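Appendix B, Record 12. Input sequence as logged:
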Amino acid sequence: MQRTFDDPPKRIRANGLTFAYHEAGDGPLALLLHGFPDTPRGWELVVPTLVEAGYRVVAPFMRGYAPTEVPSTRATILDELAADALALIEALGHRSAVLIGHDWGAATVYLATALAPERVDRLVAVGIPHPAALRPSARALWIGRHFVTLRIPGAAQRILRGDLTLIDTLYRRWSPTWQFGPEETAPVKECFRDLESLDAAIGYYRGFRPGLHQALRSKIEVPTLAVAGADDPAIPVEMYHAAARRFADYQVIALPGGHFVHRESPEGFADAVRAFLAA
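Logged structural output:
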C-alpha cells in the first residue's frame, strides 16, 4: 500500500498546547490518535482509504511527542488526553469527528466518546478493548510489565543510553508474528531522541491510575468498531467480545497480527474501516 504524509507537520493550538499534526484530504474530520511507542506515521497506510472515502484526515503527534509541545507536568492522565482530542476537533473547525485510536489513542477515544458523545460520529479502537473488559492474567501482566518499569525514575535516560533498542524490544514483545524492518521503528526513535519528548511519553504511564473511569460506566451509544490482533499475546479476542454490553452499536473484527494490527494487516484494516464508515 502507498505511504503518505510526506508533508511537514502543521501546527495548531488546542487545550493549552501547540500540537503538530499531519493532514490529508477534505470533508468531515477523521482524527487519528496514535499510541506508545508510535507516531502519526503509524497511520499512513490507512490514510488513502479515508481520503478516498471523503474525509479530512488529521493525525496529530500526541501530547508531548515531538514536535508537539511538551506539557509542564511530568504525569499525563487520561482525562487530559480525552480533553486534547475534543479540543482538537474544535480547533480544527469541526463540530464532530470520526475518532480512530490505537493503544493510548484507543483509551483516549473511548473516554472522549463517553464524555462527549455528541462530538463523535463513529469510533474505531485498535489494540485495546473497552477498559471494563480488560482482565488480568499472569501472561498479560508479564507482557505489560512496562506499566511498572516505565514509571521508575530515570527510565527515559536509561532508554536513551540503550540507544532506544527498547522500542524494537516492545514491538517484538507485543507483535511477535510481525517481521518488521528498521523503517517501522525509525520515526518513533527520531521522536524519542529528544529526551523531553521521551520523558513526556513515559509520563502517560506515570499518570496511569487503575480502575474504571466514571464516564465509562455508562453505555457508549456511538457506533463503534473494535479491531483486535488475532495474534496479540496479551489481549485475546474474547476480551473484545466481552465488552459488547458496554455499547449500543458494536462490532469486533480480528485481523492477523499482534498489538500493532493496523500496521501488520494494513489492507484488512483499511477495508474494515471503509466498510464500517460506509454502513
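The radius of gyration is 17 Å.
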